[in-house]
Amino acid sequence: MSSSPTKSPTKAAHEHALLLNSIAEGANEYPKPEHVNYTYGTAGFRTLATKLPSVLFRVGLLAVLRSKRLEGATIGVMVTASHNPEPDNGVKLVDPSGEMLDPTWESHATALSNCPTTSSLISTFTTLATHLRVDLHQPANIVYAYDTRPSGPELIKALEKGFEVFGESVKTVNLGITTTPILHYVTKATNDKTGEYGKPTKEGYNQKMASAFKTLIGNRGPLSPLYVDCANGVGAIALQEFISTLGDILPVHPLNTSTSEKGALNHLCGADFVKTKQALPPSVQSSNVLSKAGTRACSFDGDADRIVFYYLHETKGTFRLLDGDKIAVMVAMFLGDLVVKAKLDEEHNLQVGVVQTAYANGSSTKYLTSRNIPVTCVPTGVKHLHHAAQRYDIGVYFEANGHGTVLFADHAIKALKSASPQSPDSANAIKNLLAFSQLINQAVGDALSDMLLVEAVLAHRGWGAPEWDAGYEDLPNRLVKVEVPDRSIFVATDAERKLQYPQGLQDKIEEAMKKYDMGRSFVRPSGTEDCVRVYAEAKTTAEADNLAFAVTDLVKWGSGQT
User: Fold this and answer.
1) Tens of pLDDT along 329-348?
2) Residue 345 has what pLDDT?
3) Would the annotation count 526 as a binding residue?
4) Which residues pair with 100 in a beta bridge?
5) Which positions in this protein are listed as binding Mg(2+) (predicted)?
């Protein structure tokens, strides 16, 4: 829809002046703090909540620009800081596909947020609108949500102020408190004009997930109970709402659900705590819920887009972690088996592939390749994983931290829907593959969806956690943070598995690796602070530690500290 041809130049100029005045009023109400620099990265903006009001106002402006540029397509805005401590918050934009903001727009977000004065903001806004060829008379549509952080409501006010300056041309939907993946789902569903993706509401999300899960479980339920650590975050609310839709086919017992208790969010609980500490959350430990043999649990992170599973060894009582690598391997192997059983004709034969980063445990990569599942390694960051997964017919990606999903290519779905089953087994496999494509939130990593994915695969395999864990043994590994005077001298290549610079350092790292059985190590510069991260793995814990320390010394040598 273009601007009205009957609108006089004088009227248009008057409307534009009113818009700039409204922006000026908002900018004066939410001025940028001095000596703070903002950068829009993979997770959007994220820092202390007290530093964010000006950013939220400007993100409101950018979200409207993005929607108007896309002729009124709905843009999502999520206010969250995920697994960060409670005093932090953040904001990110979601494109109409339900995926992250187009990377070419990240610099626009950064530019707007760093304008030091009202006049510079208006100048940058005007330049952007002209440069991006945005028709400001176009309609705009925004859907937005936030997590349980105490700072959320005030930041939402600043965001809404950014929408309001455009007047009646902007239509908004406030989802209130909900998870990041649900916001992604609603954004994608709102833009799907066929209606096939699902109803664009929280209820639509729950109904879609429950329906697909029930199809997959069939008469196998009720399943054994699952204990879910909700990180005292928004996942607790979403899970409770979902349970009421799902019924008793999967007995779910939520833990750490104190969403209103000050300081509780992500404190000594959640997926990040479990993964980094390699231990049960103290609250789960003291509750003894895992003491009964065969019991398993999982942890969401603060905004419910990551999940890790775990259990206690039946005889030793030791903690056993089932992280993103373990999820990816089990899911890829199972979907690969279903594709074989589907017996699609040669023209439509589908390939299942896995995408990992250098942080993936070497044992998982070896296990997959030994079973003819192709593996692609990409640099760290969800956008790299997501794009690489799109190159497979069915692409599985999970970071070791538990963030991931499965992507079904459009042609794969069409092939499954049009297939002529050769037998009852073939028909069943096709039905299940289509149900998995509905169960999985393909827009983004989703703890609740991934929880159901894992439970469905376990039910089909007839496995408990120990059988899942038995596929391969993780190599012991160590991650060390090394502060350096200048991280920019460290330049990684080969999907961050090798160092190109400083010259000669990679050769020394490889010499160190050869001294340890199954030794592997890489050095990756941080994207945000003056440090590098050293990852090392080897056959034993002692060897992994020694390799990490040896490479740490080499990094210090390479940065001129020794």
Assistant:
1) 999 999 999 999 999 877 77
2) 73
3) yes
4) 94
5) 82, 301, 303, 305
Of 67, 82, 437, 449, which one is the catalytic site residue? 82
Residues 138, 163: one domain?
yes
Exposure b/e, 375-404, CB count within 10 A at least 16 = b: bbbbbbbbbbbbbbbeebbbbbbbbbbbbb
Residue 328 sits in the same domain as residue 393: yes
How far apart are the C-alpha atoms of 435 and 230, rounded to whole Å?
A: 26
**C-alpha to C-alpha distances, 77 to 101, 185, 237, nearest whole angstrom:** 10, 12, 19
Instruction: Give me the domain span that covers residue 438.
Output: 324-446
Indicate the pTM of the whole model.
0.92
Contacts of 522 (CB under 8 A, 6+ apart): 358, 492, 496, 497, 498, 499, 509, 534, 535
401 is in an annotated binding site: yes
- Asked if residue 261 belongs to a known ligand binding site, the reply is no
Q: Which of 476, 481, 475, 477 is nearest to 534 (CA)?
A: 481
- Could you say which of 320, 354, 382 is where a domain stops? 320
| Domain closes at, from 320, 340, 361 | 320
> Do residue 76 and residue 138 come from a single domain?
yes
d(CA 449, CA 446): 5
Give yes or no: residues 233 and 279 share one domain: yes
Q: Are 433 and 335 in contact (CB under 8 A)?
A: yes
